[in-house]
Amino acid sequence: MRKTKAKEKRIKITIQTVTSHTFIPSRYFLQQWVNKAFSNKIGSSAVNIRLVSKKESAELNNFYRHKKGPTNILSFPFEPPPKISSPFLGDLVICAMLVNQEAKQQAKTRLAHWAHLVIHGCLHLIGYDHIYNKEATQMETIEIQLLKELGYENPYI
């Protein structure tokens, strides 16, 4: 009897790189992290990942969140019009330079910090948030578990 591996669900990702920062994880890692974040999501899905400069991150953060300065990641969930289904979940906008700076400041590997933020952003795309303590605890618990399954340490300690 031949054993077959369960086929891992792949979420279609599109990557837009509009920054010249030196370290950006490979498509392989980005795909792995997105797949893990949506491992319980039913059906085919798609996500756009835009890797940006601090300038673009700051502009988007100011326009959409009314906050000054760049941020590590922004999530823009896609909401299709009523009665129209779409596999597109939304956009993640990641400031590569800021993510790498944070990893260094927090004494984390770049891959571990990137994995955390990609998973964090993906969870926002499917409705998770951290405005209130109860929501934050739930979201952090999921992030910690998914990162553990990928072999990364708890990012909150």
Automatic annotation (TrEMBL):
Annotated TM spans? none
**GO terms, biological process:** rRNA processing
Cellular component terms, GO, for this chain's entry? cytoplasm
**Keywords, comma-separated and alphabetical:** Cytoplasm, Endonuclease, Hydrolase, Metal-binding, Nuclease, Ribosome biogenesis, rRNA processing, Zinc
Cofactor(s) needed, names only, are: Zn(2+)
The kind of enzyme this is, by top-level EC class, is hydrolase
> What is any Pfam family matched here?
YbeY
Per the entry, the cofactor note is: Binds 1 zinc ion.
**What is its subcellular localisation?**
Cytoplasm
Residues holding Zn(2+): 120, 124, 130
Q: Matching Gene3D superfamilies, A to Z? A: Metalloproteases ('zincins'), catalytic domain (3.40.390.30)
Q: Does the keyword Cell inner membrane apply?
A: no
What start and end residues bound the annotated signal peptide? none
Q: One GO molecular-function annotation for this sequence?
A: RNA endonuclease activity
Entry's EC annotation: 3.1.-.-
This chain's function reads: Single strand-specific metallo-endoribonuclease involved in late-stage 70S ribosome quality control and in maturation of the 3' terminus of the 16S rRNA.
Q: Which family does it belong to?
A: Belongs to the endoribonuclease YbeY family.
Protein name, per record: Endoribonuclease YbeY
